[in-house]
Amino acid sequence: MLWTQVVEPRPFAERRLVCFPHAGGSPYFFRGWGRALHELEVHAVCYPGRAERFGEPPATAIGPLAGQIAAELLAVDDARPLALFGHSMGATVAYEVARALEAAGCTVDHLFASGARAPQLHVPDAAAAAAWDQAAVVRTLLELGGTDPELLDNPAFLDLVVPYIGADFRMLSAYGRGPAEPLSCPVTALVGTEDPRVTVAQTAAWREVTRGPFRLRTLPGEHFYLEQDPPYDVVAGVRHGE
Fold this sequence. Notes:
Strand order of the largest sheet: 1-3-2-4-5-6-7
Helix content: 25-40%
Number of helices: 9
Radius of gyration: 17 Å
Number of domains: 1
């Protein structure tokens, strides 16, 4: 597949879980999830411009990006229930994929939105999008954590990653949901209690995006709380249709 990679094939698993990385993230971020979540077959999304798709230009808009991912998922001949997990920017992409899937008549079993403001809180900001130069990217990565500070002092590393990380940040700054029907699927929103960018109130606002059940989970840690303590119990504890 072009957009998703199977972390660990498990054809007899009850459900599939598609994981969406953060801005600048790659499918490798979820490499341990397939081994830990035994009842799920875990897939990880690979955005263009990184990992195996390093030679491709990065995406420039979340709507078209989500549409292409949804089209690939719809083309898969697999009747197992499908859940989506997105972290940070990945939560916004996962939400737009859920919208596209439901609009096409596909049932989404569950949406997990981690470390992200609810989509209706995003307002497109052209000035902010234009301001993502290398210095701004480095400052934000230091604030959010999840990146070795020594790497951010390495010019070769910055030359390698800043183009696609900056593109992701610009894409997110330009995002605005606009009018949208609520989702039908259940939604669980997760946030680290010490997240410097996303508040509990902004996370709780995901309640407004669905007609289905909603859960809010606060977990110890900062923005990348799930690096040290992935929320496997939260994901595994949600059963089909809950």
